[in-house]
Amino acid sequence: MDFGAAYSADNLAFLLEGFGVTLRLAFLAIVFSFLAGCLIGALRYARIPVLSALLGAAVELVRNLPLLLLIFFARFGLPELGIALPPFWAAITALTVFEAAMIAEIVRSGLGSVEKGLTEAARASGLSYMQTLRHIVLPIGLRRMVPPIVSQFISLLKDTSLTVMISLGEMMHHANIIMGQGPKIVFPILILAAGLYFAVNYGLSLAARRLEARQT
Amino acid sequence: MIDISILTEHLDLYLEGVRHTVLASLLALAGSFAIGTVIAVMRIAPFRALNAAGTVYVEFFRNVPLLLVVYLFYLGLPALGLVLNEFVSGTLGLMVYTSSYIAEAIRAGILSVSRGQMEAARSSGLTYNQAMRYVVLPQAVKIVVPPVTNQFLNLVKNSSILGVIAGLDLMYFGDLINSETYDTISTYAFVALFYLVLTIPLSFASRMLERRLARSG
Fold this sequence. Notes:
Distance between the termini of chain A: 48 Å
Helix content of chain B: over 70%
Number of helices of chain A: 9
Helix content of chain A: over 70%
Order of helices and strands of chain B: HHHHHHHHH
Oligomer: heterodimer
Number of strands of chain A: 0
Radius of gyration of chain A: 21 Å
Number of helices of chain B: 9
Largest sheet of chain A: none
Shape of chain A: elongated
Largest sheet of chain B: none
């Protein structure tokens, strides 16, 4: 192992550049999948005939497939359908579809976990469906969704590493290139990459735990 | 749009992939269950040093990507002089990564058994190990089964990581078939189909177990 050669200024700059792409990828996918997941979860909770069933089937389908397959499909399958996206956006598409299905389930079960008696009492005391949703179901349900959604965000940040298969320049792709310099620097580079992922994810999980403790 | 001949002409390759995917998932499940149990008990045992070691293990592997763990086995070990083949290093990576999640599921299950149970068992003369084995663990299993089933579902999906390092799994053979047919959509639609055949029963089982165990309280 040669930590000196592994952590040369050039290598560090290159790895960090990749980490920047990783964070950008994760951030955009988090925003998109959160919005899509909330929308799908809410529509499923509302039990709109046909639509809810279709969304349920779609969510189930996506949740039972490996993300790697979706990434591959977005990058190499979509062009066959006439939709050619650059690797970065193909990755965003796959990550968003995959994580939105996960978040939709969290949102649906979070909303579903609000006791029926509460919503019935709210409706009986004269609140409309929308008012009940806004003042009763959402505040209680959202609080219960925070921990699983944060752990989903952690998954997402980790999952961006799978885009190594479509070479879009995130951290693991850059790490792969650096590791080509020789076997002695493989371990130090992997440890450094692990440290960077860990720092962000552990920070996120600590923040989530604090948030949770404050609410209860 | 989907060309069925791709499936019929490459069925042997698809099935070879399924075989490795199932094998990797089963081996990783068995191994991660064993490691996970040890780590969970370490985190609960009344010894500070063991608690700390268990916590470091769980927090590390839960907060780094699976790909990185697989790379540590596939690229890192050879750099240290230990060369394993793609399938073995991929499966070991899966095992170690998943064990951190299983450890957490088991720990949560054990902690959910009320303290009084352990205290009563100890005061009636059982040793810590006996109390764990005969009183606490049997009760914890109920709570642990649904999340572990769920982890098995994740395992099957995550085993696709072997495809990245040419680990002979379903993803790998999908890649191989694709490079021959150039029909990405059809090739991967059948890969997806095989994954669904493996994952959907698990997903149902996990939900059913959860419901049944919740009812039996």
